[in-house]
Specification:
By secondary structure, the chain is mainly α. The protein is built from nine helices and no strands. This is TetR family transcriptional regulator.
């Protein structure tokens, strides 16, 4: 019975988080309210307050959910590969695919990072500056491992290269239109990265 209650509670929390993502896409962070999220999810505002103390806690959980979803999507594809170079390619392909297939998640992430503030009025993008982004860290570890195994060149810095690759992948979200060729962009990025690491 306790397990069933936990499952129902987790399902309800996920429903609220997904509704928050939808509303962030529809109206942005500035106009976001618990009432609007509740209306979209077709639940009461009180039910949201039961699961999340306030708007800030809900936003923090939404941010964690978004980062976790992207990391899981990418990691699932990277871990299928044993070869370190293939892991690098899998990371690049998965990152670009995620950007293309989950635009709504990316929009919500941007809305939170650049518009949300803590109770102390600190913008989210200035928080946890000492903590490593798990996505950047995963890629940095792939690059560093490739160097340790002498599969990759020692002429590049893993951290700087990870920033460069993730930046190019993230930028693809802003370029998407009918004329945007994702396959070609992916091939060019892989070609560029291969020249750096080999």
């Amino acid at each position: 019975m306790a397990k069933e209650k936990t499952f129902i509670s987790e399902a309800r929390r996920e429903q609220i988080l997904k509704a928050t993502i939808d509303v962030l896409n529809d109206i942005g962070y500035v106009k976001l309210s618990l009432a609007k999220i509740a209306k979209h999810a077709k639940i009461s505002t009180g039910l949201i307050s039961y699961h999340f103390a306030d708007k800030e806690e809900l936003i923090q959980h939404t941010l964690s959910y978004l980062i976790g979803a992207q990391l899981e999507f990418i990691e699932d594809r990277v871990k299928r590969e044993a070869d370190i170079y293939q892991q690098l390619l899998a990371y690049i392909k998965a990152t670009l695919t995620y950007q293309y297939e989950h635009v709504e998640n990316n929009v919500a992430l941007i809305e939170i990072i650049f518009n949300a503030r803590t109770e102390d009025n600190i913008p989210y993008y200035k928080l946890n500056e000492e903590e490593e982004d798990p996505l950047y860290l995963r890629l940095e570890n792939i690059l560093a491992e490739g160097q340790r195994k002498k599969i990759f060149s020692s002429d590049f810095q893993p951290k700087a290269t990870a920033i460069l690759i993730n930046g190019a992948a993230s930028e693809s979200m802003l370029l998407q239109s009918e004329s945007f060729d994702l396959e070609n962009y992916q091939q060019e990025l892989i070609k560029m990265v291969t020249k750096i690491v080999k």
